[in-house]
Structures are given as C-alpha cells and as structure tokens.
Amino acid sequence: NAGVMQNPRHLVRRRGQEARLRCSPMKGHSHVYWYRQLPEEGLKFMVYLQKENIIDESGMPKERFSAEFPKEGPSILRIQQVVRGDSAAYFCASSPLGEIRNTIYFGEGSWLTVV
Amino acid sequence: AQSVTQLDSQVPVFEEAPVELRCNYSSSVSVYLFWYVQYPNQGLQLLLKYLSGSTLVKGINGFEAEFNKSQTSFHLRKPSVHISDTAEYFCAVAPLGGKLIFGQGTELSVKP
C-alpha cells in the first residue's frame, strides 16, 4: 500500500557495513511491524513497535539487529556488520491500533543485497 | 504457538480456469485468518480476512475463501482466473491481539 513509505527500495552493502532501513507509517498509524522475506521463503516476523516502545521483538536476531520508532520521524531497522545471509526483502507494515482486527498495511519493501 | 502450511508451492493454471490455493493452520487458540497477494517486487496487499461470522469470505479481485474450523483450513478460490492474477499468495493467521504468522507462499502462474 502506497501509504506506508519505505526507503531505500534497494540497498547494496558490503559485508561488515551497516544497513539502515526506514519506514514511515500511514498517517495516523502508531503501530509498526517489521518482517523479513528471505529468497524462496515466506515472511518472518521480526519486531513490533509503538511510538518509543518495543512491544514484541521475539523475531529479531539476538545480535546486530535493532529497531526503533521514535516519537518523531520514521521507524528504523538497523543491521550492523551485515553478512551475506542478511540479503532479503524487509517489509514494514503499520496499523492504527495494536489490534490485529484492523487491517495492517504493508509498504513496498526494502531489498537489501550484501556483496 | 501458531503455524501455517500452504500445501502447494507452485500452482500453474490456464486462463479462465478455476483455482484453489490451499492453506492449513495450527493453533491452540482462536485466530483470525488472512490471505495476501504479492506482485513481483511489491509489498503485500490484503485480499480478504476472516474475523468471525460467516465462514465464506469474499475479497477483492473475485477471490473468496472458506474457513473450516474442523479441518483447520482456509482455502482460497477463484472460479475463473486472469493472467493478471499471476502472483505470490500468502496465507496468514494471527491470534487475537497477536501478530501475523505467514505461510511459505504459493506461486500462482496463469498461462494463456
């Protein structure tokens, strides 16, 4: 859905560099979800955030990955010291409330390639 | 915990033929059920969702799905497909108040 803006759409990083992926939720949405889609696989939940709070990070790798959703500005998914296995499409989604009954809108995704 | 199994990784069909994409789920609690479509290099778009009520759910683009609690299934159907339906289709479940859990996806390929 065009309402959730992700950038960059494509990002190439060398092994060991940092990758920062940004997500601006739809207007009025205060809940953000990050998912990762590895080649030939479905989407895997990573983290769920509200403004200034991490609600559920059970899908985040223990090391090198972090996420934030500050009071002002977009949500950021940060991957430090990237490795080839981090190459994937990263999707952000937003919803107005944390209730799954409400439709979650997905962004167009950010494709990370680690060379 | 919840899990979703999409039984077919690829489904090739001819244009104007009917299609069914299968989805089974496992959960010890009540869940909501969803189908999403992903066109190449794009994000996910919601096709339809089951929250409660009638077990037959109609969505966009002529798709419908039926919730079968006894068989824990939520199969997606369309009576007549178009070339433009070629895409990846994802089934997903979410417990009340929880997060979406996706299946592996089914690649629908519609041939002329």
Describe this structure in words.
The complex is a heterodimer of chains A (115) and B (112). Helices cover 0% and strands 49% of the residues of chain A. Chain A is mainly β and 115 residues long. In chain A, a hairpin with a 2-residue loop joins strand 5 (43-50) and strand 6. With 112 residues, chain B is mainly beta. Chain B contains no helices and twelve strands. Chain B has strands at 3-6, 10-14, 19-21, 23-26, 31-38, 44-50, 56-58, 64-68, 73-78, 87-95, 101-102, 106-111. In chain B, the strands form three sheets. In chain B, strands 2, 5, 6, 10, 11 and 12 form a six-stranded mixed β-sheet that branches. Chain B is globular. The interface between A and B is medium-sized, with 24 and 24 residues.
Roughly how much helix do the residues of chain A carry, as a percent range? under 10%
Q: Strand fraction band of chain A?
A: over 45%
Structural class of chain A: mainly beta
Q: From the alpha-carbon coordinates, what is the Rg of chain B to the nearest angstrom?
A: 13 Å
Structural class of chain B: mainly beta
Radius of gyration of chain A: 13 Å
Oligomer: heterodimer
Major beta sheet of chain B, specifics? 6 strands, mixed
